[in-house]
Amino acid sequence: MGLLWQALMLRTMTSAIADASAPASRKQAAGILVVDDNAANLLAIKVALEGLDAVVVQAQSGQEALRHLLARDFALVLLDVQMPSMDGFETARLIRQRERNRHTPIIFVTAFDHDREDTLQAYAMGAVDFLFKPIAPEIVRAKASVLISLQRRTEEVAEQAALLRQQERRLHQQELAEQERRWEQEALRRQMEEKSRVAEEMARRAEELKRMVAERQATEAKLTTINRRLEESDRRKDEFLAVLAHELRNPLAPIMTSLDLLEMLERNQTRGPTPDRGKARAVMRRQVQHLIRLVDDLLDVSRINSGKIELRNEVLDLTTVVEQAVDTSRHLLNERQQTLTLNLAKMPIPLKGDGVRLTQVIANLLNNASRYTPDGGSISVTTGIEAGQALIRVRDTGQGIPDDMLESIFDTFVQFRAKGGGLGLGLTLVKRLVDLHGGFVSARSFGPNAGSEFVVLLPAVSEAITTPDVVAVEGATSAAAPLRLVVIEDHEDIREMMSLLLSSLGHSVQVAARGTEGVALCVELEPDAAVVDIGLDDIDGYAVAERIHAALGERAPYMIAMTGFGQERDRKRAFEAGFQAHLIKPATAEAIARVLASARRRPSTPPVSAATDSDVACRIEQQHGGRVDPLSTPEVSQTRRANVGK
To answer: How far is CA 98 from CA 24, 30, 103, 150, 574, in A?
Structure first.
């Protein structure tokens, strides 16, 4: 009898072990529920999901989707947002109210952009993502595959837990049988140790799986953050390069005008007062030296990215460099009626460096001080020698810099002070250029609205100071018929050179530095034509044209837009605002004369057709490097862009 009992127990144990090790029956295929009121969209998604080990169930309404969810579980719900009767958000809310489907993954599908509130609402309901129609098959397949895998992993863990519980029950029954047979205590202890080991192994694997999931989530979050930063950095770089390229047109305008003016003087073609040759040459020299270097840096993107800037060193007088920088920034200081005090060293301070770059350093500091100092404020520049180094100190009475921002004020695109304007690159260039010269720059603030101070230290030398050569430049132009003209331009060099050029052509010229001033001048004088800059400080050139047309009607002058923006949308915007011609900076004297000739014919001659104007513009551009875009009859636009450029 004892042997028979032992045989029966051995057979029972063998059967239990075989049952535990037998392969599980094939699991039910994972389900994907696709909800969309459009049958074509359902078919497209079903085709995109073909090949996955999953059953695709379709529903054309939220109510039908809820019925399917009562029948079975799904690894993923692809839910259309826009549906009649019950939209996607309401359907998702009802799905989440059922405990069994509280954690079912939901991906919203929409043909429309969603706002921040919808996004937060969707993620609050457990949405894992948004997809936009038309859906890329690769994307929806990839996302569905991941969610199906996660569901299967979850099912496997549940099955393993069930197997563990089943094994525990069998071990318990075996233990009772062994106790009934009075097995030895040592055999029972070994069984308990084995049970503990299995449990610990399962716990270890579960913890490892949890750690892997956490690491993956952390990596995905990190990649998302990095991608967002890269996108922002790329956007800022593109915006900076676009605006910088546009700003480069401003120096070109006075250069072109001065060249035309000098050529007219050479040919004795001027009809009005004789312009100052020296002033024209000085403007060209200053603008050309600055422009050439900036264009070199702009075009060589690899040098900008790597921070490589080539210096052309010579021995300079610090006082001369400061005076050139002051000349460059003078128009900004004058516009804001700010007082500039120069405390320059009485003796020359020689230093070795790139004159254009050092002028740019000081001019950037002056522009920065002016930009953050209220109208009528004070700015001072002090030079001297400190510990054998050349010292430049720029101080203002502006709003100051917060203490926690002083360390990062020289970083790229940093503009911590309100309403700073500019590209956010001026102080970054200051620091890089000073570093390249072997110098040091620092900033400090004296408190809110108490001003700030920037100090530059550069190595001084004892060598003789270099005197730059004077370059002679020749030009050529043609005269235009006498007209009464108004020039509206806020850039001092452009305004002055344009006035000199037009006066030399025999025209009667009045100038205005602000848009509102120019409107009043045109209404008072009723000139034959008005040359208007688009990027004015107070109101843009489009508003100027609209106000002049509103005030004068048919007596309005021939409106000529002058701008650094020359794309098709810019010409269209000028046309809508009431301009008859569109000049792109820098414009040659012949291009200006061509437009003024159209202004002179305006009372008796209809506007030239677009095709003819295009041909003329092309010829002028090829022969003289300028471009003119005459426009047909304008229509006043009902909307205006808030931000425009020159």
So the answer is: 30, 20, 10, 21, 60
Torsion angle (degrees, nearest 10) of CA 353, 356, 362, 364:
-130
Looking only at the bridges linking them, the beta strands covering 389-396 and 378-386 are: antiparallel
Strand order of the β-sheet with 76-80 is 54-59, 30-35, 76-80, 106-110, 127-132
Exposure class string for 298-326: b at 16+ Cβ within 10 A, else e: eeeeeeeeeeebeeeeebbbbbbbbbbbb
Alpha-carbon torsion, ordered 430, 431, 432, 437, to 10 deg: 90
Axis crossing angle, helix 39-48 with helix 137-180, rounded to the nearest 10: 60
How would you class 128 by CB atoms within 10 Å of its CB: exposed for 0-12, middle for 13-18, buried for 19 or more?
middle
Assess contact for 460 and 386: CB atoms under 8 A: no
What pLDDT does residue 242 have? Answer: 56
Q: Which parts of the chain have pLDDT scores under 50?
A: 1-26, 297, 299-305, 416-423, 468-480, 604-646
Exposed / middle / buried, residue 121 (Cβ in 10 Å: 0-12, 13-18, 19+): middle
3-state secondary structure (DSSP) of residue 630: strand
Q: What is the pLDDT of residue 620?
A: 29
In the Cβ-directed half-sphere of 35, how many Cα atoms lie within 13 Å?
31
Q: What is the DSSP string of 57-73?
A: EEESSHHHHHHHHHH--
- How far apart (Å, rounded) are the C-alpha atoms in residues 55 and 39? 18
